[in-house]
Amino acid sequence: MLKYYISTIIFFLAFLFVSGLALATDLDTEASVVAVGDNLIHPEVYNDAKTGQDSFNFKPMYEPVKKDIQDADIAYVNQESPLGGDDRPYHGFKRFNTPSSIAKDLVDTGFNFVNGSNNHAIDQGESGVNNNIHTWEKFKDKVLFTGIFNSQEAHDNIPTKTVNGIKVSMLSYTFGTNGIKPPHPYTIKTFDEEQIKKDVKEAKKHSDAVIVSAHWGNEGQHKQNKTQEKYAKVFADAGVDVVLGMHPHVIEPVKWVEGKDGNKTLVAYSLGNFLNGQATGNESNNLLGRLNFKLVKNPKGVKVENVKWRSMVNHYELANLYDKNSKKDFKVYPLHDYTNQLAEKHGLHYVNGANMTKERLQEITKDVIDKEFLDDKSL
């Protein structure tokens, strides 16, 4: 009889231990997130990546930040220049068309949330939209690609991906498409309060967290405008968890925006550029933003925690010092690891008025980003 009681007690204690572990897991599920801005592939960039007649390798350009991207559970990028099709000429501003092979290179770098909604999304017309979607469909097991749609059903669907047991929905909106009329009403979503409220309400039925990609703002301005603030409040009132802003090509502030029912939304007004060859670029266009945070889930819901900013640098040199368009050796570096020895080689030194030093990039970062989001790895 004694053995029976002892066995029963041991079994009961073991049950409590296992149940406690399960409860602890339920109470604390998290996913780490990194987000970067506009991957904008100008001709100088894809020519630098060219390895043959019709072959390209962009992976070395992302190598210095690859580990940071791959270490995250969710890695977001705005693919600004559309993958409009390899059956037509590649092109830069004003009607971009980027080699489709960059999709695999981004996936290999670690990106698994990709946005296609921006002002250049329809640069290559309806066929370009379809080519872009079909290219990313090849990676659908690894990547959530959204922002452009080839049917009403796709438009109405809420893009959602489960990561570490957390269901994350991704919604995308743009201010416009550079005057190009979308081929169909369902092709792309622009800023519309009722559409946003409808989408977020539906997303919250199916997911634990809602992230929005917002293509908005004034180019070249380090301060958000009134329209950005207006829609940030719309998102916060609707219950969005995080807003990732882009389009200005420079970094803008990160803020907590209070909404209805006590909701607090993390808003990065602009993450700036990512890899790019912007012809009108200055040091601000080559100072890139990366936002790190965690989505932490417990029975009460999901919280956004551990928010930290990481500045990066879009580095390139010149093949001909007398030709500012002869850019080569593109690479994205963490600002923390960037040196003035590298900065001295930057092609911007040969552009009038440019001040490309590590100290200048640190200064801009500290002027724009609040201290609460900065630490010793931010700069």
Give me some keywords for this one:
alpha/beta; single chain; 28% strand; 6-stranded mixed β-sheet; 10 helices; 379 residues
Account of the protein in words:
The strands form three sheets. Strands 1, 4, 5, 6, 13, 14, 15 and 16 form an eight-stranded mixed sheet that branches. Strands 7-8-9-10-12-11 form a six-stranded mixed sheet. It has a single domain (29-373), classed as Purple Acid Phosphatase, chain A, domain 2, CATH 3.60.21.10. β8 (166-174), α7 and β9 (209-215) form a beta-alpha-beta unit. The chain has ten helices and 16 strands. The radius of gyration is 22 Å and the shape is globular. It is of the alpha/beta class and 379 residues long. The model is unreliable at 20-25 (pLDDT under 50). α3 (59-70) packs parallel to α4 (102-109) and α7 (193-206) packs parallel to α8 (226-238).
Summarize the structure.
The protein is α/β, with parallel strands linked by helices and 379 residues long. The chain has helices at 2-27, 43-48, 59-70, 102-109, 125-137, 152-156, 193-206, 226-238, 340-343, 358-368; strands spanning 29-40, 50-52, 55-56, 74-78, 113-115, 144-146, 160-163, 166-174, 209-215, 242-246, 254-258, 264-268, 273-276, 287-298, 301-318, 327-334.
